[in-house]
Amino acid sequence: MPQIDRHKDRMVKIEFVAVEDFSVLPYPERYTLTYITSGSINGLLNERPISISAPGVLCLAKDDKLQVNEKMNVSAQSFSFHPEFLNTTTLAETKDYFPAAPSIQTGLSLFQRDHLYTGVPRVTEKAYPLLFEWFFILGTEVQAQSDGRWVCRIKKYLIQILGLMEELIQNSEHSPVDTVLDYIHTNYSRKISLNDLTNCAYLNRVTLNKLFQERCGQTAIGYLLTHRLKVASDLLTHTDMSINDIARSTGFEYDTYFIKQFTARKGMSPTTYRITSRKFGTAQ
């Protein structure tokens, strides 16, 4: 059932199921992320065989057809959300200020079906603890509603989860560059040096940067900055987090440095970007 926000007069169309038994998936009119923490399942997704062992994630759109044929000591939890939840704010909050609320685009490919994708993104060893932590926080926030910004925090972690899983799918090969990309996508909120990246890939900095230039069009550290600013842009547009909180959440030790780098890359300050992207839906 949708959540009643006890801090504001509104319904929030999200649900968290702490013990998922797979009996009613997918949930009607929802996107659903099911995180399998132990055991495994076998079955069919849209008439195609799937097999998921922990740690694993199943991404379901409302029109998917899931048939679970076998469950082996499985333990799982689900977070589901109506597409309206991807809007920046509720209609009641935006109608007097903005003509339309831009929608979160990060991670939507997880729910689109084609011949290359089955709805089961790869969960790497490095990604597992982060996904586990973020899913736990989602469940806690849904249940606790600890203050008036609980929905904002859920959007933050949802953006992070969807973004990480999308990156894992896009980089499904496993070259040294993929190893470093995995490291960046799971550790961007922490302090990262070039030495950290070269040690991760077992390459010297010249070779690593050459491979990154060929693959990504920029150096490894340049890619790290680009990814941090991409996540920050989503948080600016779709949450009400402070500039300082966003800076720290995306790996910038000082908000002044974050503002400087953001302004240099985007051509406007974070505050101006937030206002512009919400008003015109032009965030990039």
From TrEMBL:
Coiled-coil intervals, chain numbering: none
Q: Which chain regions cross the lipid bilayer?
A: none
The keyword RNA-binding appears for this protein = no
Positions of the HTH araC/xylS-type domain: 178-276
Q: Which domain of life is it from?
A: Bacteria
GO terms (molecular function) for this protein are: DNA-binding transcription factor activity; sequence-specific DNA binding
Q: Which PANTHER family match?
A: ARAC-FAMILY TRANSCRIPTIONAL REGULATOR (PTHR43280), HTH-TYPE TRANSCRIPTIONAL REGULATOR EXSA (PTHR43280:SF2)
Q: What is this protein called?
A: AraC family transcriptional regulator
Species this protein is from: Paenibacillus ferrarius
